[in-house]
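1st attempt posting a full record on here, be nice pls
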Amino acid sequence: MSQHNDAKHAAPEAPKKNSKGFLIALIVLVVVGGTFGVTKYIHAQRHEETDDAQIEANISPVIPRISGYVTEVRVKDNQQVKKGDTLVIIDNRSEVIMLEQAKAALEAAKSNMSVAQATTTVSKDNVATSQANVSTADAQIEAAKVTLRRANQDYDRYANLIKDHSVTQQQFDQAEAAKQSAERQLQVLTDQKNAASRQTSAANSQSYATTQQVNVANATIQQRQADVDNAALNLSYTLILAPEDGLVSKVNVQVGQLLQVGQSLFSVVVASDPWVVANFKETQLAKMHDGQKVTIHVDAYPGHDFEAKLSSFSPATGSRFALLPPDNASGNFVKVVQRLPVKIEFDGNDPLVKNLRPGMNVDVDVHIN
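the predicted structure (as C-alpha cells):
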C-alpha cells in the first residue's frame, strides 16, 4: 500500500524533466540560428556571391582554307599540341601543279621583259641616230645657204658685166650654172632634213611604244609573281597547323574525307590561361569594381580556394547577346532582374589552374570591402 502511494507521488515529475529538455534544445537552436544569421548578415555586407559562373578559355577552331581530300590525320582526341604542329594533311598534287604553272608563266614574262628592253635600247639608238642626221642636215643646209648666197652675188655681178661685155658669155653661163647648182643642193639638203625629221618622229613614236611595252611587261611580271605567291600560299594551306598551344577536342575528320573551305573540323582548347565568367544580378553590382579580390570554389576541387581578381564588366547584360533579345516595347512588360557577365582572372601560380577546363561550374565570392 505504501509503495502504491509512492508511485502516485513520483509520476508528476516526468513532465517537468521533458519540459526542461525541450527548453534547452530551443535555446540551443535559437543561439545557433542567431549566430548563423548574424554571421551570414556580416558576410553579406562584405561579399557578393553567385553560383551562376563557369570556367572559360580560348578555343581556336581548326578550319581548312582550301578544299581537298584528307591524306593524313596526325592528332587524336584530347592530344596536347604546340603552335605550328601539323594536324591534318590535304592532298597537294593539284596545288603543286598550279605552282609549277605559275613559275613557268613568270619565266615567260621575264623573257618578254628582256625582249622589250632590247627593243627599247634599239629604239633609243634609232632616235639618237635620226637626231644626229637632222643636226648634220642643218649644218649642211647652213653651208649650202652660204654657197647659194655667194652664187647669187656672182650671178648678179656677171649679169651686170655681161651687158657691158666686160665678161665673156662663158663666164656668165658658169655663174648661172653655179647658182642653179647651189639652189638644187639647198633643196636636196632641205629634203634630206625633212626625211630625217620624219625618221626622228617615227623613232620617237617607236621608242614610246617600246617603253610602254616595257611597262606592260613589268606589270605582267608583277602579276605572274603574285600568281606564284598565291599558288605557294595555297600549297602551304594543304598542311593544317595548330593555331595555338592547347588540347585537341574531338577529331571528327577521316582520311579520304573531302574538306570544304570554312568547314569546322575540330578545336584546340587553350587551357593554359583560363578565366571565369560570373553572371551577377544587377542588384549586386553597386559595390563591385575592377581589381577586387575574388575567391573561387570549383565543384571539381571541393574545399580548395582559388585566388583571383575581378578583371572587367561586360558592356551589356547577357540577354542583349541572346539569339532573340527581349523586346520590352511590345506585349505586357514584366520586370525581371537582369544578370551582367563579369570577367574574373586567376591570381598566383596555383598548379591546379592548369587542370581547369572550360564549362566547369564554380562558385564566386567577391570581397567588396
